[in-house]
Amino acid sequence: MAERGLCSRRDADEYxxxxxxxxxxxxxxxxxxxxxxxxxxxxxxxxxANQQSRLTILLNKPVGYVSGQPEPGCKPAVTLIRPxxxxxxxxxxxxxxxxxxxxxPAGRLDIDSTGLLILTQxxxxxxxxxxxxxxxxxxxxxxxxxxxxxxxxALLQHGLSLDDRKLKPARVEWLNDDQLRFVLxxxxxxxxxxMCELVGLRVTGLKRVRIGAVRLGDLPPGQWRxxxxxxxx
Length: 233
Fold this sequence. Notes:
- The chain is of the alpha+beta class.
- The protein has five helices and 16 strands.
- The protein has helices at 9-17, 45-52, 123-130, 150-157, 191-198; strands spanning 21-23, 26-28, 41-43, 56-61, 65-66, 75-76, 104-105, 114-120, 138-145, 161-162, 165-166, 171-176, 179-184, 202-211, 214-215, 224-226.
- Strands 4, 7, 8, 9, 12, 13, 14, 15 and 16 form a nine-stranded mixed beta sheet that branches.
- The protein is globular, with a radius of gyration of 20 Å.
- The chain starts with 8 loop residues before the first helix and ends in a 7-residue tail after the last strand.
- The mean pLDDT is 89.
């Protein structure tokens, strides 16, 4: 079920126990039940309603906040999800404490980086963005210092390795004299900064502006909003 993107593994266990899963039209309520790889698996309406009630939040993370588990002397980005930091329009729902229940970052953004960070209660969204087979790309605007020749730009696009593992091809281009645009399909720890170091550049500023089809837009730093019903990654 998780591999097909129907739900997270944790949710799959809950839905099976509750009898909310059907295999070839037959209700399944016993954990560990096996199904043919080609079997049609569907969810009960109650499971679908449960999923639709789960929230996904877009945050414009400022410098000084960690995206995941708190580190000594640092604040986790989730502490910014408060009523006073919500970016609202007349047609958006208001913050409620239930918004924080089970809310977790779907991906990382370094403490000294800014921009779009996704936090979600929905395991399907997390899997879509950070699962092993995720094909969602991420776009970054990166200010750099140093000199980069044509060979260095080619290496950034394809040819570098980190921790003895080759990186996936990336799209990298100059936007102006000191700013590069990166589009990546992976998110290793401090990946862009380490890539730049390998070709003689020093990153002086890094901002994520897009994940898939969802853009940061004019969301102010330190503020957040709900993913809109019409938005898809």
